Amino acid sequence: MMADTTRMAHLGVWLLSTGHNIASWRHPASDPAGVMRVDHYVEATRIAARGKLDMIFFEDTLAARERNGGIFGEVTINSLDPMVIIAALAAASKDIGLAASYSTTYHDPYLLASKVASIDHLSKGRAGWNVVTTDASAGP
Fold this sequence. Notes:
Elements: E1 12-14, H1 38-50, E2 55-58, E3 66-67, E4 70-71, H2 82-92, E5 97-103, H3 109-122, E6 127-132
Parallel strand pairs: 1-2, 2-5, 5-6
Antiparallel strand pairs: 3-4
């Protein structure tokens, strides 16, 4: 049997604001304040595009993650609005998909769809929305 060589994998990167290592900010080459500047995200997106990744993805974080009574993962404390980030990246990039998760539990689905559609049009079809729900820990 011949292998199907027309199929390709599509790869993306889930970009957490502070990285996947909770202590990454301690590395001497780290710039912890960078997570609050657009140039950090532009550079990460350019690196992902140079690496031929198909997409860069940001999560909507509405509450601190807790386990056994303690917070784990500082990313939940220091994250910016992913819709704003992908809108900025739409103007600063051209060859990579831009996606964000957004909770329909605490955000109106119609308004979210409208915002993603706007970014999708402005980015020439590169925006995506990972529709999620959120548990009660993020609620008032």
